[in-house]
Design a protein that fits this description.
Layout: E1 2-4, H1 7-19, E2 24-29, H2 35-47, E3 50-55, H3 75-84, E4 89-91, H4 95-98, H5 117-120, H6 124-138, E5 143-147, H7 151-163, E6 169-173, H8 193-198, H9 201-214, H10 220-232, E7 237-246, E8 260-268, E9 271-279
Helix pairs in contact: 6-7, 9-10
The protein binds pantoate.
Pantoate binds near residues 30, 61 and 132.
């Protein structure tokens, strides 16, 4: 397994693989890898000849008061996880390699980024689209793998690929959870013991909502109310949003039908966690 910080070297290697007729997967990450990332790498490993993982904490997708500096980083640990998962190449650039001093090209879109996480993180999705576009150019892969925990991100990337004609297949992979149901996230490391115990409320509230839907509830506002009530029972939890939207265009819906995303963002203490259910 090679670790490279160079755009030129990485692109050259991927092009060589492609010229040899090999299929290439890209798993974009910000590092501090967990079981969720591992499941993406393992799926990529199964479905492709070569697997590239990018590890880059992208400053452009963090707002001024967000956790860019504090975001956990551990390349040694990450490389071990990648090695075990059979990854061929880690692309780990410095910020200067990705964003030159006069950088001014951005990728953005209307509508999809405006609600949910975009409402409380205004620059976030522009940063994600810009860096993911760059990664798709640097690593001209056949397939890219993203987790469904970041469901809005997945919907935006799918739309971006469609709208801008990127020649890459986007594969969304299921959320991986801790034993008690908390969705795996690099940000879980910020939680104190007490907060960690209470953080299960996100998954539990979504479970209750799904039970109601399975029992025939179709009214989106009632589904939202079930989630809000459950989260309200938790002393350390503060809701950022609870939304029921169409998964394809991230617009609010009144009735549960078609492709539906139930998405929540909740502060547990000062840590903002997200979780969701997708009904297809
Ligand atoms: O999901 C993430 O970790 C990041 O948003 C991504 C897709 C790697 C872009 O920086």
């Amino acid at each position: 397994m090679i670790i490279s910080g160079s755009i030129e070297e990485t692109r050259k290697q991927v092009k060589e693989w492609k010229a040899q007729g090999l299929s290439v997967a890209l798993v974009p990450t910000m590092g501090y890898l967990h079981e969720g990332h591992k499941s993406l790498m393992e799926r990529a490993r199964k479905e492709n000849d070569k697997v590239v993982v990018s590890i880059f904490v992208n400053p452009m997708q963090f707002g001024p008061n967000e956790d860019y500096e504090a975001y956990p980083r551990d390349l040694d640990r990450d490389s071990g996880i990648c090695e075990d998962a059979g990854v061929d190449w880690i692309f780990h650039p410095e910020v200067e390699e990705m964003y030159g001093p006069d950088f001014s090209g951005y990728v953005d879109m209307h509508t999809l980024p405006e609600k949910l996480c975009g409402a409380s993180r205004p620059v976030h999705f522009r940063g994600v689209q810009t860096v993911v576009s760059k990664l798709f150019h640097i690593v001209p892969a056949d397939r890219a793998y993203f987790g469904q925990k970041d469901a809005q991100q997945l919907a935006i990337i799918r739309r971006m690929v469609m709208d801008l004609n990127f020649d890459i297949e986007i594969i969304g992979c299921p959320i991986i959870r801790e034993e008690d149901g908390l969705a795996k996230s690099s940000r879980n490391t910020y939680l104190s013991e007490d907060e960690r115990r209470q953080a299960v409320i996100l998954n539990q509230s979504l479970e209750e909502a799904m039970k109601a839907i399975e029992a025939g509830e179709k009214d989106a506002s009632k589904v939202k109310a079930i989630i809000e009530k459950k989260i309200g029972t938790c002393s350390l939890a503060k809701i950022d949003y609870v939304e029921v939207v169409n998964f394809d265009n991230i617009q609010p819906i009144e009735t549960i039908e078609g492709n539906v995303l139930i998405a929540i963002a909740v502060y547990i203490g000062t840590t903002r966690l997200i979780d969701n259910r997708i009904i297809m």
